[in-house]
Amino acid sequence: MGFAYSRLSRFNDAEEVYKEALNIKLTLPAYNDTSIANSYWCLAVIYYRQSKYEIALTMNRTVLELRIKSLGESHPSVAKSYYHLGLTYSKLSKYNEALDMHKNALHLRLHIGKENQVDVALSYEKLGVNYDHLCRYSDAISAFEKGLNILQKLYGNQHIKVATSYNSLGIVYCRLGQYGKAQDMYHKAMHILINLGGGNYAQIATICNNMGKIFNGQHKQDCYFHFNDTNSILLESHKSNVVDQRPKSYPIEIKSKSYGKSKLNRLDVS
């Protein structure tokens, strides 16, 4: 029932159900640490989704302790706990702590399973994000490239997760002022999203915004994109959000001055 409430974004109801379940498990000896950890885990997810990151952090620490106690240190669920602790620390802007958690998760995932798996690629991606926050750009590029190589082996070149990695690399190159490399990464990401179709307009708009930052850095006044798509593209500007209806291959004009104070955005496909 708690899961159903959570899916409906009825977080207070979900929290009440999960707390009741946890209290029952804590009072009855029949429930082991793994089961109790799962209840704490459900609560951590609820708090995280409500941006209550400090509480989520406390829950995730408890989950980690219980899982290590019941499952041992070399278990996929322990790696998952480290990973989600890293996510939570990052939301709190504690990037060094987040790095430590993601390194632990990556170490376990490499030790437990195969190198070419999605979880390993995700760990590299999150390492890259936190290196980026800490201005450790060479480390960020290395981590993103390792994640990208794994994703290409798993999915080929035409997958939204591959586009996400290209976009992440573009962000770092843009910060370094290497606009040619950044533009190449964004073009690859956009090409994948357009070929995939299926309504990836928000992700395409995100790359448009990031590309606009490049044009601003290069002091270009007018730049164009061509989309092989007949549907709506959501464009973000400094004044308002505008939906433009464009025919096939019509150039979408980006005024660089609109992006002077914009931030570089990541694709969220998780």
Supply database-style keywords.
single chain; 270 residues; mainly alpha; Serine Threonine Protein Phosphatase 5, Tetratricopeptide repeat; TPR_rpt; repeat; TPR repeat
Concise synopsis of the structure shown:
InterPro entries: TPR-like_helical_dom_sf (IPR011990), TPR_rpt (IPR019734). With 270 residues, the chain is mainly alpha-helical.
Give a verbal description of the structure.
- The protein has eleven helices and four strands, in the order H-H-H-H-H-H-H-H-H-H-H-E-E-E-E.
- It is mainly alpha-helical and 270 residues long.
- It has a single domain, classed as Tetratricopeptide repeat domain (Serine Threonine Protein Phosphatase 5, Tetratricopeptide repeat).
- The two termini are 24 Å apart.
